[in-house]
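task queued by scheduler; priority normal; single chain, no ligands, no partner chains; default sampling; output format set to structure tokens
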Amino acid sequence: MSDRRFKILGIFWIALVFLALGIWTFLFSIEPRATLSFQAFNIGQGDALFIETPDRYHILIDGGPDATIIAKLGESLSFWNKKIDLIILTHPHADHVSGLVEVLKRYQVGAIIESNARYNTAEYTEWNRMKEAARVPSYTAVAGMRAEVGKYIVLQILTPFANDAGQTFRNIHDSNIVSRFTYGREMFLLMGDAEESMEQALLARGVLGPAAVLKVGHHGSQTSTSQGFLDLVHPAAAVISVGEKNTYGHPRQEVLDRLSAIGAKVFRTDQDGDVRLTTDGLSIVESR
């Protein structure tokens, strides 16, 4: 009887151990939902946006006015990581391109997307020289371009509407790249320095929709972020990349009022420093 009792107890404990191991294995097989990180660096009067995808692809949209971007990237990437998978230059104004020249000097860059419009400045000439010397593959942005970045992220180019390579513009903002990044159900709409005329053209083409995060166009200038545009996009969060006490009066109060009226939470690099938002594809969270 005693032997039978010990035998039953032995079977019971073995079954319990296997059950515990099964639960343990199940718990460890559940991975937390992967996170995308979006940052607007505080680099003064200019734009520099940095995205790290859930599978660790790194995307830099513009580079700000100077070498400040190098310190910012150093804070966001490990010491040994000198790889930027994709750079998007929205347009060749110095407050967007000058820092990218420094990035090309120090980082391995996988690919570049830009408008390639003609623009005769020392900063843009140096950018083109460095790009050619580094032999980085460069692609001319045209509306309708679409790419999957890793397993999770879809990148769409919404403007320019035509191939602007080699074209000269009275207002270089007319060659600006507007891009949209989608992860799960969350969308980031990045306007660069797009002005109201470009917003209206996007509305007319029917390519816009609600976005969780809006990178406000042209640093919050009165030239951008029109009411009709906001009524459709209706972002939960609006990020303004702007220099403290800048001489342009950015962001304009009327733009801030329009954003407030639709209930958008406004983040400003001149007041908040580096802005970092994360998402698991289901919701947006502010991170510090």
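post-processing summary
- Residues 1-30 form one domain.
- The longest helix spans residues 2-29.
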